UniProtKB/TrEMBL annotation:
Domain of life of the source: Bacteria
Coiled-coil region: none
Keyword Transmembrane helix: yes
Transmembrane segments: 12-32, 39-58, 672-691
Protein name: Threonine dehydrogenase and related Zn-dependent dehydrogenases
Length: 695
């Protein structure tokens, strides 16, 4: 029963004051001068005031509200180490049992660290989960919070949390744990291909170790060196980036005996390899319509350093004019093809023919350049079919096809061969999906016999138009027409000459993305995505080894000609090894060097400040002295309801606050000066006043 008195005046408060104030003044004056009947007049005034104020006795029926208690359970990956998961489950079951005895507590269990989103799994964010649990609860109803965690919480505040209630932390693991880890201190995001890259790293041990350890350095899965590192000190590292695009530099150390986990015994750095400016030598046999197309294309690429020579004055055109009177630059044959030939990434012969400008021996140097890894592109015109063809020089050993001497002058649409539809140089070429292709015609094809390599485009009468071949460690491309300039000029709508020419040049210079047989993998969120480029019809499934060593397979589905894709949702953060046939690839899923595994030794320090600031406590579930073991061996403190002003923690107990809040269920009203009773009292007071005044 909750009794209270309320007033419900019959008239407004201002009007009530105007009526009663003069009467009260007269009554007080009468009492001051002790006039006859003054007491009765004052009593009558009080009765009139009570009648106008209309006092009501309220009897409220209220239901007490429960205090809200949050139990935040850490389910992050670091909790899977050792016996922590078992300790967590047993502690949660014990707490639910103990809290269930108290009807004044509304218990909310929140599990954190198992979100599907990768960005939410990079760190253990228990206070974010705690805030969500109390989002709909007023501060007066928060009874407290209990966290079951290993203590490695990455969003712990430095001071008091945003709720005024006790925070208690129950720490899994034990105080004798040890772990050794490695991390990058400085890892640049980009590096030049083939150039040394300076990096630094540090090996960190438990309890300030000062010994040394071997560090294995791997680049893209291949071990390149073993370094000796002093634990605790920043160590320099120099690696060479092998190729353009994504490169994975991995550092690894051996686990020590009784170490918690070897997950953080590896550190990963993702480095994008960037090529220095590519050096291209373009030699045009004589001025023609297609020469400008090649020059404009190569000059438009800021990453290409172009050296271009056009043979304007071959030896047979000598007319006795003195050299010092000519405005031409002498062709530096020895400098280009002997002294500096290795400096070029690509050599292009555009409608070039042997006219004694190059000594015959120099063609042998060019063939040797290709065999040792160089790139050569032949843009053939009618000269290739003539008596002065470069196929009649020692360069013939590097060429993919020999001329028949035939030049076919016939209109045709360049088309992709069946092989070309799968080859990365010509696959998906703009306009190739229709028949005829959505580009202009050409009108000349150079006849060849016994073509080698891969014919990816065909011309008139299905003759080879574009040949791509490997010679030793190098590559050779051959365009058997000189009319690509028709596309550049927009004839009959033009064609994708920029796209095609660039792909050819990049394939010749071994751009990884244009390899016929290529396996790549990438992590997007917690999804591992696999891409397989191949010239075969079915590459088979991909084999995967997870960071923990588990093996699995993923079926690769055909996405387009020459491309097969596969994906699998993962639960582990780390480096995955992917294999298919003889190809292997590495992919890192989840955040690189996530804070979740930066330090896995359980600790009380991170939660000590916020817990003590709220009057709570931090204690281990497996202390050296037991205070009440459960079946699994963890020790749980007793749970005690406390008032808001009382202590909230003791040696063997934790306190949770109860609330005084309640909700109104019903109200009973009893007017004290209403009805016949009020009327009778009022008449009695007035009658007494009149009676006394009349005597």
């Amino acid at each position: 029963m909750n009794l209270s008195l309320a007033f419900e005046p019959l008239i407004s408060w201002p009007l009530l004051g105007l009526v009663l104030a003069p009467l009260l003044l007269l009554a007080l004056v009468g009492l001051w001068f002790r006039q006859r009947g003054a007491v009765f007049r004052f009593a009558a005034l009080l009765a009139l005031t009570a009648a106008l104020l209309n006092p009501v006795l309220l009897d409220e029926e209220r239901e007490a509200l429960k205090s809200v208690v949050a139990v935040v359970v850490d389910r992050s990956q670091s909790q899977d180490i050792g016996e922590r998961t078992k300790q967590t489950d047993e502690a949660l079951a014990g707490l639910q049992q103990r809290l269930g005895r108290f009807k004044q507590f509304d218990v909310r269990v929140v599990e954190a660290g198992k979100s599907e989103a990768a960005e939410e799994r990079t760190e253990t964010r228990l206070f974010g989960a705690l805030e969500s649990a109390f989002r709909d609860v007023p501060p007066s109803r928060i009874g407290g919070a209990i966290m079951i965690t290993d203590g490695e919480v990455h969003d712990a505040p430095g001071g008091t949390p945003d709720f005024n209630a006790p925070l208690h932390a129950l720490i899994t693991g034990n105080d004798q744990e040890k772990d050794r880890r490695i991390r990058f201190e400085n890892a640049p995001r980009f590096g030049l291909v083939g150039k040394p890259l300076e990096m630094t790293y540090r090996v960190i041990g438990t309890n300030n170790e000062a010994s040394s350890v071997d560090v294995r350095v791997s680049v893209n899965g291949e071990q390149v060196s073993v370094e000796r590192a002093t634990i605790g000190q920043a160590m320099p590292l120099q690696v060479t980036i092998p190729g353009a695009g994504r490169n994975i530099v991995e550092l690894a150390i051996d686990p020590e005996p009784d170490e918690l986990t070897d997950t953080n015994n590896r550190a990963i750095a993702l480095i994008d390899g960037i090529r220095e400016n590519l050096r291209v030598l373009l030699v045009s046999g004589e001025p023609h319509a297609g020469e400008r197309t090649w020059r404009n294309l190569l000059k438009s690429d800021a990453s290409v350093d172009l050296v271009h020579f056009t043979i304007l004055r071959p030896p047979e055109k000598q007319d006795g004019t003195p050299i010092n009177e000519l405005s031409l630059i002498a062709f530096p044959t020895r400098e280009l093809f002997v002294e500096k030939i290795k400096d070029f990434d690509l050599i292009i012969f555009d409608r070039y023919q042997h006219r004694d400008v190059l000594p015959i021996l120099y063609y042998d140097y060019i063939a040797e350049y290709v065999e040792k890894g160089g790139a050569l592109l032949i843009a053939a015109g009618p000269e290739y079919a003539g008596e002065s063809s470069i196929a009649r020089t020692p360069l013939m050993s590097a060429l993919p096809a020999m001329p028949t001497g035939e030049v076919v002058e016939k209109a045709f649409y360049p088309r992709l061969t069946e092989l070309g539809q799968r080859h990365p140089v010509t696959r998906g070429l703009d306009g190739s999906a229709t028949e005829p292709p959505h580009w202009s015609r050409w009108f000349r094809t150079i006849g060849v016999e016994n073509p080698g390599g891969e014919a990816v485009m065909k011309g008139a009468d299905n003759r080879p138009l574009l040949l791509l071949d490997r010679k030793g460690e190098g590559r050779v491309g051959m365009f058997l027409s000189d009319q690509g300039w028709l596309w550049a000029r927009g004839f009959e709508g033009g064609g994708p000459h920029v796209q095609l020419y660039r792909r050819i040049a990049h394939w010749l210079m071994k751009e990884p993305e244009l390899e016929e047989e290529r396996l790549t993998a990438d992590g997007r969120g917690m999804m591992l995505e696999i891409r397989r480029q191949t010239m075969s019809d079915d590459p088979g499934p991909a084999q995967i080894i997870t960071p923990s060593g588990k093996a699995m397979t993923v079926k690769l589905e055909r996405a387009e000609p020459g491309v097969f894709l596969g994906s699998i949702e993962t639960s582990e953060i780390g480096l995955y090894q992917v294999g298919n046939g003889d190809l292997k690839a590495l992919a890192h899923v989840g955040p690189v060097n996530a804070p979740e595994f930066t330090d896995v030794v359980s600790t009380e320090n991170r939660l000590k400040a916020p817990a003590e600031a709220t009057g709570g406590s931090v204690r281990r579930l497996a202390p050296s002295s037991a205070l009440g073991n459960l079946a699994g061996g963890v020790t749980l403190p007793s749970v005690v309801p406390v008032r808001s002003t009382g202590a909230a923690a003791g040696n063997d107990w934790i306190g949770l606050r109860t609330t005084d809040d309640s909700v109104l269920k019903a109200v009973s009203r009893v007017p004290l000066f209403g009805g016949f009773l009020g009327l009778g009292l009022l008449l009695l007071a007035l009658g007494s006043m009149w009676y006394r005044e009349g005597r």
